[in-house]
Amino acid sequence: MLKGLLKIFLGDKSSSDLKEIQPVVDAILLAEKSLINLSADELRAKSIDLRTRINDHIADLQGEIDELKIKAETMPESDLDSKEAVFERIDKLELEINVELEVVLAEILPEAFALVKETAKRFTSEGEIEVTALQYDKDIAATRDMVRVEGEKAFWSNTWKAAGSDVTWEMVHYDVQLVGGVSLHRGSVAEMHTGEGKTLVATLPVFLNALTGRGVHLVTVNDYLAKRDSEWMGPLYEFHGLTVDCIDKHQPNSESRREAYKCDITFGTNNEFGFDYLRDNMAKNPNMLVQRRHHYAIVDEVDSVLIDEARTPLIISGPTPKGDEQEFESLKPMVVKLIQVQQKAVQGFLTEAKKLLTDGLSKEDNEAAGLALYRAFRGLPKSKPIIKFLSNEGMRQRLLKVESFYLADNQREMHKADEELFFVIDEKQNQIELSEKGILYLTQGMDDDAFFTMPDIATELVAVDNSDANDEEKLSRKQEVMQDFGIKSARIHSMNQLLKAYTLFEKDIEYVIMENKVKIVDEQTGRIMDGRRYSDGLHQAIEAKENVKIEAATQTYATVTLQNFFRMYHKLAGMTGTAETEAGEFWDIYKLDVKVIPTNKPIARDDREDLVYKTKREKYNAAIEQIAALSKAGRPVLVGTTTVEVSELLSRMLDRQGLDHQVLNAKRHQQEAEVVTRAGQAGTITIATNMAGRGTDIKLTKEVKEAGGLAIIGTERHDSRRVDRQLRGRAGRQGDPGSSQFYASLEDDLMRLFGSDRVAKMMDRMGHKDGEVIQHKMISKSIERAQTKVEENNFGIRKRLLEYDDVMNAQREVIYKLRRNALYGDRIRTDIANMFFELVEANVDATHESKDYDNFRLAMLSNIGIEAPVSENDFLSVDTDDLVYQCYSKSEQHYRSKIEDLSRRAHPVIQRVYDDESNDFKSILVPFSDGLKTIQVSADIDESVATEGVSVMKALEQQVVLAVIDLHWKEHLRSMDDLRNNVQHARHEQKDPLLIYKFESYELFKQMVQKVNAEVASFLMKCTIPINAGEQPLRQGKKIDVAPLGKTSKAGVDNIAQQNAARAAAGGGAISPTQPGQPHPTSRPKPVDPIRTEKKVQPNSPCPCGSGKKFKKCHGK
Predict the structure, then answer these.
(1) How many angstroms from the chain centroid is the CA of residue 973?
(2) Quick one: which H or E segment has residue 540?
(3) pTM (2 decimals)?
(4) Residue 1031: which residues within 8 A CB-CB, separation 6 or more?
(5) What element of type H or E holds 552?
(6) Residue 299 host element (H or E)
(7) How many CB atoms lie within 10 A of CB 918?
(8) DSSP codes, 271-282
(9) 153 pLDDT higher than 90
(10) pLDDT tens-digit profile of 44-94?
(11) How far is C-alpha 1048 from the chain's CA centre?
């Protein structure tokens, strides 16, 4: 009521949004009139003029950037501070250009939108458009039939291929679609109902922003829509000389995908855009990068992508040490036995409750009955007999009353309820815990009674310290204690995950078995989440349960949440039919305002109040009767389900009734396009998940419209109101008739967990009997309130995930920036100088306060490879900041002279190879060693000769920085995964796990950065060319090709095993990578020597490795 009053007096947001945009729409319509009499060539010239105006507007800023880049290239390496200031100015100017682009785009928006609309109108009305043939016309004509060239003229047909079928362009933008286009350009979410032409609306802002040449990404929920829309809408852009492609048509990291990203407009799925970003940040060479800067993106079905799929991060992962050592198979028989005894116990509790719950029972019997019922529920809450019994009159209220008693006072009495159970399940929290009784049952007959009991590690370590053993024995005992703790921790975790797999995760509901693999079904869309896995070993537990191959455990190589990926774009927009219910989340996380766009025609769909039954059986029977009646009346029926199991159950029920129908669920997802095409035919019955056909329209014939249009039958209310609205939205497109009716029961998951207590009380008071139905607006509102609770909980989960990833993202930005600088090489010297400075600063801070000159001197020698630049007296008297600056200056001076010397030594060798006409190699491998490890640096021969060896040193810096960063970043990600799991135990100490995670992750990152700085600085300062190559005869090494990274599987929930494709890094690495982006942490590489000597090294000669030892004492052993 309050909302209604406010709307009357203040108006609603939709009206104010429309009022704000209307002047722009009027300007578009005015500009459209000026284009009517233009020829087709003049139309195309108009788009060229718009591009010119954009470039002219930012010409001064772009010119300044170009000048600064030239200046930076010519600045001496010694002037690092000035060079860094130049780069900072360049970054600031890039941001200013983005601001100015929005200014000029707003100015030309009416003309650009009118130009797109006029082009669409001419394709619709003329059938074929004649223009003067330009080069891009000829290029398109060479590969596609839609354009033909005759002499100096090109003819564009309005029929072309899209998704394998011929489509004829017959669409012109409505005025309300112009409103949607303006909203999208301004970076908002445009909510447009089904059938309102979201795909066509997107052509307006896409065309406008593509004129900047900075790339527009149009993101879809699946590859079918990405490919279809790129082919369907593409000619509208290509007619004006814009380039269009779809990344899902090309293999990851391929040259064709790189070209796709260079296009003005790039279509693709959210997963592929995200994974390409991660792959780019694992690249070893600039030529392996595919993406440009993230400028502007429009996300189709934005609620599905940015909310539903954002629950889980994107992860690229690979094998972890001992990842195939698992206990699931050995523990599985124990779990099966444990579940059998639990089922027997639960059945006994339920039987006891039924016996006690009779008329006139005493207070003691009432308490005993309630406790027995509660124990049965705590033991197996998804048991069908329990769910059935709780649907009886008053049983749900009795259970809730008992539950509130045991939850009171921080669950003080809960142990009494759980003491007779073998394990306890908290369904709402999706958690399971082995009880004392369960542990006793499992360990009976075992020699080790503590087989499933975690040791008190602190007490045991103190006991070892207080023992009379010597230090060596104490160390050995401590290692045994820690090893025992680790083994039992992993065992108990595996046991809990197996119990969860057997009791909370059901086949054909949460997952399906296809191709002998466990595949997750998205609870929101009903689609297969191909390649995604449950986390924390749960997926392996389900694999053990279903007797399929158990994949090895993995570790993370690169990860990002969809939230943080899409927040990188300069401008982000989205469109969907269902966003208003999630408007708060869109604003809180993405700063996206939701604008509800009015429909072109009033909605004529009849949305009826929910029908609520007591049991699922009654509900399904009533739904089948209604489906049969609607189909007989000549109306197509779309039956929405929430799970694969329900869709197949309804299919069997329809078969028994002799009713023909088609089914679309996760198992039959490949048939989606075909099923949706037939779904609008008279009398057709289609069973599908609630989100089936998203992104497509069910079109109706005249006969069907006269019969009443498409009938929607929802067999269960989904957790999210958006999903129910999406199902309703299948009917009533563009003013078509239709109806929607939801069927619910008290046994449904949503009702059982959140909504049934209030409804059950109402049904009990009204004396409803089995088979009777209740239907009222108040009931529908009650169900929507239950949905709101679930939505709030899900938002909390997503926000918590994002809060953890925000910590990770801050670190990710630092590391990825260092990698990019190393890849391109223009700012790498500044980064290396900063590494030197931070390393020197750490050495000074660790020793200067305590006046420890000996350790200071040792640190300078071991970490940087130079003698202390100050005497002991100066060290004791000089200020800390002055000491840091003196040491840093000395380090820089030493390093510059060193790389000049190495350049001079490498140059004659490369010059000799260059002068040798018998070789045809483009690059040469130059070995560098610091005495401990060797790196083979790939250098371009022509460039090395032209720069007299300087480019070799740049390549050395690049490959050392990349190899060291990748090694420690991968280890850091593993530590962060472990940290995130471990901090959850802080809840037991009444502490916030997120706060502890932030503090601890900062310390871990600081340690990682210090290690990176130390290793990079140490190797660069100490490395040398092992052999005096300039004086030795040479034999040229073979060229090493850099292969593109293999295709990475999607891994949104857990780290999954990737293709184990070992790829050579660009010119090799300090240690040979065994996975994309990951150097092997332990083994030393097999030497590859492109430069070999004819002369044998004598035993007493210095070892070529640069260690300073004699050859016979080193590598000559």
Answers:
(1) 16
(2) helix 538-545
(3) 0.75
(4) none
(5) none
(6) strand 296-300
(7) 5
(8) HHHHHHHHHHTT
(9) yes
(10) 999 999 999 999 999 999 999 999 999 888 887 777 788 889 999 999 999
(11) 13
